[in-house]
Amino acid sequence: MSTYGDLDKLNTPGLPVPTITDLSRPHWEGCQRDELLVQRCQDCGHYVFIPELACTNCLSQQLDWVASSGTGVLYSFTVIYRPQRPEFDAPYIGAIIELEEGWHMLSNLIECEPEAACIGMPVEVCFVPRGDNLKLPMFRPLVAG
Ligand SMILES: [Zn+2]
To answer: Which residues pair with 47 in a beta bridge?
Structure first.
């Protein structure tokens, strides 16, 4: 039996790719370098994700791109058994991750059987190739040691 979320099933032909905009480009370029970049407000320190033109806390437009540690915990998740597109290898886990810095992102939990997923479990980012020249940030269980 294969482990759920095998990397070789996460880049099969036909899977959708994100639309990269001028606003989100730094995030995707960071992923290419295996860096998880997030916007941070210079004025109030709030982390902003998804990318925005202004801080979602104080409306300042002084946003920097900073590197996240890429570690956090599983904040919430759902197991998808009937994918919206046939290209997806189901079941898979849609997850909200709470990063160490306190911000959240929607992603996937991989290399984890659905029955093993639990709220609060430590996770780490990994960068999964998608298409010809993209990497997507996904998360896997963080093994201590
Ligand atoms: Zn702010």
So the answer is: 40
Q: Around Cβ 94, how many Cβ atoms within 10 Å?
A: 13
Residue 126 has which token pair? Answer: 């990994």
The pLDDT assigned to 132 comes to 82
Residue type, 118: C
Residue 41 CA to ligand 1 center (angstroms) comes to 5
* 52/103 Cα distance (integer angstroms): 14
Is residue 141 predicted with pLDDT exceeding 60? yes
The residue whose two tokens read 């197991």 is 79
Region 7-141: CATH code: 2.40.50.840
Sequence-separated (6 or more) residues with CB below 8 Å from residue 68: 36, 37, 38, 99, 100, 101, 103, 125
Task: Give the start-to-end residue ranges of the domains of the chain.
Answer: 7-141
- pLDDT tens, position by position, 46-90: 999 999 999 999 999 999 999 999 999 999 999 999 988 888 889
Centre of ligand 1 from the C-alpha of residue 102, in Å: 14
